Amino acid sequence: MRAIQKRCDHPIIGYSDPLPGVYTAIQGWWERRHGWKPETDWMLLSYGVVTGIYFALETLVPRGGKVLVFTPVYDPFFAAVKNSGHTLVECPLLLQDQSYTIDWARFEDELKHGVEAVVFCNPHNPVGRVWTADEMDRLTQLCAQYSVYLLSDEIHADFGLTRPYTTAGRYPCIHKKLVVYTAISKSFNLAGMGSSCMMIPNPDLKKRIQEAYDSRWMFGPSDLAFTAMEAAYTHGDAWMDAQCAYLRQNSQMVTRFLAERMPRVWAARHEGTFLMWLDMTCFGKSSAELTELLARKYGLALGDGSHYGRQADGFMRLNIGCPQVTLQQGLDRLAALYDDCMR
Ligand SMILES: Cc1ncc(COP(=O)(O)O)c(C=O)c1O
């Protein structure tokens, strides 16, 4: 905020390009925190991550081409695939021991049947997985083997809570066909700044996406967003560490509360993100009914699980990125619903 205020001392906020310091700040953050040093000339700053996914799909995959997502997943992926004229292929995640894994056999089968791009989410919204290095190795190998684009949405990269998070960027085998997406939006709660960064190791892909972006007169991110990115990635380490420590406590608080007060509801093993994935099928209600009931009667807004995939009805997404007093109030309201319905 101080950096933005200082920037506002200057009276002109015009169209502008980022200064080199923005790129080196992003690079430094990734090298320090994620053990991968993207080259600064791989970086393409854009308005939002979802915007960047649209641009990559439109530019790289012919209309009608098959694009695969692992469901349940962040719902704008569905819209991006469909609205850019592509064919959506769903590869449902497998649920085992209250955690989700990739169905590798099904995934490979889909790749054999003409999938051209995978839109991947790491850490995964909404199920909270931080994919392991082995899983990332297997994913990138398979994408490379079948010559498939990997669009890796790593906007939640900074929220690897139980294990270090592994970026797809660490696997050179996929560099020819890789776009990694990142942003300050989630990490620093600056989503309204409208800014993100695509990291594209293949210069030809980068050029094509950049041309598509520029040709549509997409100005942005704004100059204020450049300032915010540089400041956050330069001075934000201690703040980010403290935030993750706090979120770990919040996550444990929810798991404990559910076990003690709502034993028939369970949360998927939470490894990362500030979102928790709750199985509330014991209520015998659809996610839409639960959303409505929670909002109207209990003053609580949870994410409707069915938005993230067809198989997720009865699930809800809980945002734990808030002060613990607020979280406790939310949990008490959830328990009130539980008591009323399970009595
Ligand atoms: C996985 C994921 N990708 C992208 C976004 C949105 O990013 P942007 O606002 O930069 O489009 C979100 C926001 O919730 C998200 O969870």
Global shape: globular
SS element count, helices: 11
Query: What's the domain count?
Result: 2
The overall pLDDT average reads 96
- Contiguous runs where pLDDT drops below 50 for at least 5 residues: none
Estimate the helix proportion, in percent.
Answer: 40-55%
The CATH superfamily of the largest domain is identified as Type I PLP-dependent aspartate aminotransferase-like (Major domain)
**Order of strands across the widest beta sheet?**
1-9-8-7-6-2-3
Span between N and C termini? Answer: 49 Å
One letter per element, helices H and strands E, the order comes to HHEHEHEEEHEHEEEHHHEEHEEH
Q: For the CA atoms, what is the radius of gyration?
A: 20 Å
What proportion of the residues form beta strands (DSSP E)?
15-25%
The CATH class name of the largest domain reads: Alpha Beta
Could you give a short description of this structure?
The protein contains eleven helices and 13 strands.
Describe the structure.
42% of the residues lie in helices and 17% in strands. The protein has 343 residues and is an alpha/beta fold. The protein has two domains: 2-235, Aspartate Aminotransferase, domain 2, CATH 3.40.640; 238-341, Aspartate Aminotransferase, domain 1, CATH 3.90.1150. The chain has a seven-stranded mixed beta sheet, with helices on both faces. Strands 10-11-13-12 form a four-stranded antiparallel beta sheet. Strand 6, helix 6 and strand 7 form a beta-alpha-beta unit. Helix 3 (49-60) runs parallel beside helix 4 (76-83), helix 3 crosses helix 7 (203-215) and helix 9 (237-261) runs parallel beside helix 11. The mean pLDDT is 96. The chain binds pyridoxal-5'-phosphate. Pyridoxal-5'-phosphate binds next to helix 3.
